Amino acid sequence: MVPQRTIGATGTGRRAPGGSYMSAVDSAPIVGLAALRCAVAAVLTSRPLLATTASTSGSPSPLGPPPTSPDDVEATRVAALVDLARRGDAEAFGALYDHYSAAVYRFVYYRVSTQALAEDLVSETFFRALRSMSSFQWQGKDFGAWLMTIARNLIVDHYKSGRTRLETTTGDFTGHEGVTDGPEDEVLAGLTNDLLRTALMRLPAEQQECLVMRFLNGSSIAETAKALGRSDGAVKQLQLRAVRNLAKLLPEELR
After folding, report:
1. Which of 156, 250, 132, 139 is nearest to 206 (CA)?
2. What angle is formed at CA 219 by the lines to CA 42 and CA 201, rounded to 5 degrees?
3. Domain of 9: which CATH number?
4. What pLDDT digit, counting tens, does each position of 168-198 carry?
5. Rounded Cα gap, residues 135 and 199, in angstroms
6. Helix ranges, 52-204 (H)
7. What is the distance between the alpha carbons of residues 234 and 179, in angstroms, rounded to a whole number?
8. What are the CA-CA distances from residue 87 to residues 19, 71, 99 (Å)?
9. CA distance readout (Å), 239 to 9, 113, 202
10. In which residue ranges of the chain is pLDDT below 70?
11. How far is Cα 80 from Cα 72, in angstroms, rounded to an integer?
12. Would residue 182 be called left, alpha or beta, if left means φ above 0 and alpha means ψ between -120 and 50 degrees?
């Protein structure tokens, strides 16, 4: 297991309180979960899915939340924090941790299934980011995508080490009962978020990463492509395959 390193140990004064990381999984955006349920229901009822980005209408697109226009104020704030953190400002790095840690945790947890291991890997992700801040270059890659790349590499290294194997564990999950109107109501009624999460954790790694970033973290196609090292078009196709495979992993009575 990766040695536990808390942000507090690196000088920002922040330590993740017990249970706070799991709340990031339990509080995954309801809109994102609803959109993923709609996408799977569309596959189960044989409604065609297009490998495009989302629509701009008020309802969630089957292929994920619509890419929103960047919030200029927030983007400027994050850029300023990154600049300060690169110059050694511990509080600025702590603010970046507060901003991104929940999304990084969701990304990691769905891959490793175990709360303690996920917390270790998230801590290691931010430890490595802090250690490398002075050399961070934008180079077209958003800071959040850079963190996801670090986390993804840590996950790969962990499983390559052969110290553990990927297991499907659902004990840490709690359900969210949502209602989504649409033509697939009958399917959606039986497609609970617990079933969806369990199936999600059985997907191949890259498909799972794609859906977590696109639906649960609300990342854009471009952000997901940067984190996964793929082109925008490849991510669209990967997302489409992932949704179809997710539908196949659901209980037989839903198929």
Report:
1. 156
2. 60
3. 1.10.1740.10
4. 333 333 333 333 344 445 666 677 778 888 8
5. 39
6. 72-86, 90-112, 115-132, 143-160, 185-190, 193-200
7. 32
8. 32, 25, 19
9. 38, 21, 15
10. 1-32, 46-72, 138-141, 162-189, 254-255
11. 12
12. left
Between the CA atoms of 173, 176, 177 and 183, what dihedral angle is there, to the nearest 10 degrees?
Answer: -100
* pLDDT attached to residue 234: 92
User: Residue 62 is encoded by which pair of tokens?
Assistant: 């089957």
Q: How many domains does the chain have?
A: 1
Could you tell me the pTM of the whole model? 0.57
User: CB neighbours (10 Å) of residue 199?
Assistant: 21
Q: What is the pLDDT of residues 224-236, one digit of tens each?
A: 998 899 999 899 8
Burial class (CB in 10 A: 0-12, 13-18, 19+), 254: middle
Place of tokens 């339990």: 26
Amino acid at 149: T
Enclosing domain of residue 73: 1-255
